[in-house]
Specification:
elongated
Amino acid sequence: MIAGLLIDRAEYRRFVSTARNRAAGDSMPTYIAEKHLLCDASAVPGLMQMGLLEGHRTPTGLRVTQESVEAFKREYVFLASIAKSIGTTSSRGLMRLCEENGIKLLLVPKTGRGGQQPFIHVSDQQKLMEDRLN
């Protein structure tokens, strides 16, 4: 309450978030991009380095354009999210299955601990599911 003015907290937060996004050129921080892509935030800088996501560095960290995130989601899916959806705890078995069946993996370098995060083309997801059942 400010001098007798009542403001709904949830509406205020939405308003501030929308204003910040507009000011940032409809871009999002990596932790939001991670949620949209269903991957670990440590892969987002690698996707930017590979030219698969667009964005820029700000004083508070990397920001990724909404448009590039949506375009990437139309093309690729995170292998671990597939593993999770079918009840497998690891994507390693799915990686092996991809390699055995000629499904090309997109290996994205992670920041921090190192390593890579595997993605596949959305169009290969159905083939992977069929190969898994055989």
